[in-house]
Protein: Ricin B lectin domain-containing protein
Organism: Corallococcus llansteffanensis
Amino acid sequence: MKDIVRLVPAGPVEQLRKVTLWMSPQYAGFPPTAEFHYHLAWLRQHGRNPAMAENVEISNVLIYESEARRMPLFMLHELAHAYHHRVLGGGNADIQAAFTRASASKTYERVERFRGPGVSNSFERAYAMDNAHEFFAEVTEAFFGRNDYYPFTGEDLARHDPATLALLQKVWQTPQTPAPLPQSVPQVPETVSFDSRCYYRLTTQWRGDGLSLDIINDGKNNTPILAKTAMVPGQLWKLLPEANGAHRLVTQWRGKGLSLAHTAGNQPLLVDTAAAPEQLWRVTPELDGTLRLTNLAQDASLSLDILYDGKANITPILARTRHVSGQLWNVTLVAPCP
């Protein structure tokens, strides 16, 4: 709940504070869940407390922690139902129009779904397509944090459904700063080069400059991780030029004898340096100045990413290429450099 107060503007938060949260044991014949109760009649029909009408009931207390790993803002989802119904009006014309437009676009018919840590993602019809109420609650999760269906984040939403993003900015009263008009069409540089004498720090747009690509000191000393940024040799990388415009990634700590490679299970590891395509990386500039890392042994369908596990979110993997912040890397020169 602290995250909701931190993420949502103060005005809407004051409205959300008026919603009562009821804790209940799981009911026989019903799955454990969290739900906003729209109808007094339904509560009476099912023998539940009528005072819960137009409020939120939580009957998944025993699995709350695991559900939060899969859906970090699932409580905001239910509170969004309350905000929609009690503040904006359940029949809000703008929300209905956004849902109708999204449904007609067919762009939510087959999207990626995060099914939880250690479980393979699936592709299916977005839950947002059930009705206008679920649509609003689902895109609200993405807007303020992360949803379990694509569009996962506000960044995804901006690309996937910018009209709905604008609606959310309006109804949730978030600041809207229009982007400056470009003077000309921006051009993505075709190549990027690095000084082979120098060391660089690798951070992601998602996790920010406070976490850097490092190597776990566990005896094997070959597994990459995002760790708290520090001036340590495991976080100092050289990007050495190879043939075909590719680069080899080595650390100051382990030296040139071990190179970052794509291995089984799409796991990057440090392995003995060899003339192998699995150890060669394409470093491709993106329009926003970040860089994408793909492996020469694969086509560009897989990019170096950070696993979203709902916990620490610090494990590098190779994942399906998408324009997501975990795949957008900043490569920063570490001074001094010869």
Remarks:
- The two ends are 50 Å apart (CA to CA).
- The first strand starts at residue 21 and ends at 23.
- The first helix runs from residue 2 to 7.
